[in-house]
């Protein structure tokens, strides 16, 4: 169950990062509320996952899902550039996540 909590926590990290961008520095109410709620939910699920998963693994996977997901959302919805170097960087992040999961068994 810890891995499921961690996965959802990572997805919520993407939500709060996107809504934080949409809040324009917390000057827009609805995206600001979504940011705060998603942050609290993400941190809570991360904490639950850390009950059984090692700190380094849980934190790396959580931030990796958030970083890779935010990259994808930025490209798809915000018009951010999709260059070979950025793709390589995202691929390296994802490779690290897979290796970390495999190392845990």
From TrEMBL:
The UniProt record lists the keyword Cell membrane: yes
Gene3D superfamilies named among the record's database cross-references: 1.10.3730.20
InterPro entries referenced in this protein's UniProt entry, alphabetically: EmrE-like (IPR037185), Small_drug/metabolite_transptr (IPR000390), Small_multidrug_res (IPR045324)
Signal peptide as annotated in the record: none
Residue ranges crossing the lipid bilayer per the database entry: 33-50, 57-79, 85-103
Pfam families: Multi_Drug_Res (PF00893)
Alphabetic keyword roster: Cell membrane, Membrane, Transmembrane, Transmembrane helix, Transport
Record localization: Cell membrane
Membrane topology category: Multi-pass membrane protein
Cell membrane as UniProt keyword: yes
Family: Belongs to the drug/metabolite transporter (DMT) superfamily. Small multidrug resistance (SMR) (TC 2.A.7.1) family. Gdx/SugE subfamily.
Listed name of the protein: Guanidinium exporter
Species this chain originates from: Camelimonas fluminis
